[in-house]
Amino acid sequence: MARDHGKKYTEALKKVDRAQLYAPQDAVALIKSTSFTKFDATVEVHLRLGIDPRHADQNIRTTVALPHGTGKSVRVLVFAQGEAAQAAKDAGADFVGADDLIGRIDKENFFDFDIAIATPDMMGKVGRVGRKLGPRGLMPNPKSGTIVQPEDLPRTIREVRGGRVEFRNDRTGLLHVAVGKVSFSEGQIQDNIAALMDAVKAAKPAATKGVFIKSVTFTSTMGPGIRVDPVAAQAMSVGSTAE
């Protein structure tokens, strides 16, 4: 099986000029033609940023609302009580609760959800399981827009279900962001990437010096990386392609 996957990757790689910086639209077309998985592969964007992750004021953590979503169903857990809990249930959250959910996470290692949202009054209690949620990227945080006032719960739940994605740089200054599925149209993928590029540019730390976005690579799950012209990638705009 591994040998077969190796052959498929080698064949896909033949379609890509590793020395070339592709225009974004050409790279998106290549993503679709080089994806060989039997499942609907995820499209990813990898960015090398001109930041020093050792300095807190140069790290990036924010969100982007992808126009066409991620193609993935998102399981939402909300820490809330009283009227806020009812509002979260009405908005379609998968799990809603307070001490009961915190207890399940603490005692049963319950992590059958993709994102956790909390109202501010719950954070004192949620902090008790922070050591478990934090390493999994599930701890509610104001920077990721997951600590919200009760009246904002319905909108926030709709946004995260509809394609709001959190992203942050890793320890080496790289960003890795999923922006959809190979089954999406080329226009939908380009729109999502354009929205991401806008969000990254908007999140540029004031302390950053020199070139901010140094390299851009598009790829799909198990597919070859396709190097993209960083200037052209930053010039992308949502809705500029015709379906």
TrEMBL record:
InterPro entries: Ribosom_uL1_bac-type (IPR005878), Ribosomal_uL1 (IPR002143), Ribosomal_uL1-like (IPR023674), Ribosomal_uL1/biogenesis (IPR028364), Ribosomal_uL1_3-a/b-sand (IPR016095), Ribosomal_uL1_CS (IPR023673)
UniProt keyword Flavoprotein present: no
Encoding gene per record: rplA
Protein's name in the database: Large ribosomal subunit protein uL1
HAMAP family for the chain: Ribosomal_uL1_B
SUPFAM superfamilies membership: Ribosomal protein L1 (SSF56808)
Family of this protein: Belongs to the universal ribosomal protein uL1 family.
Record keywords: Repressor, Ribonucleoprotein, Ribosomal protein, RNA-binding, rRNA-binding, Translation regulation, tRNA-binding
GO annotations of cellular component type: large ribosomal subunit
Matches recorded under Pfam families: Ribosomal_L1
Gene3D superfamilies xref list: 3.30.190.20, 3.40.50.790
Subunit composition and interactions: Part of the 50S ribosomal subunit.
Species of the source: Kouleothrix aurantiaca
Domain of life the protein comes from: Bacteria
GO biological process: regulation of translation; translation
Biological function: Binds directly to 23S rRNA. The L1 stalk is quite mobile in the ribosome, and is involved in E site tRNA release.
Single Gene Ontology MF annotation: tRNA binding
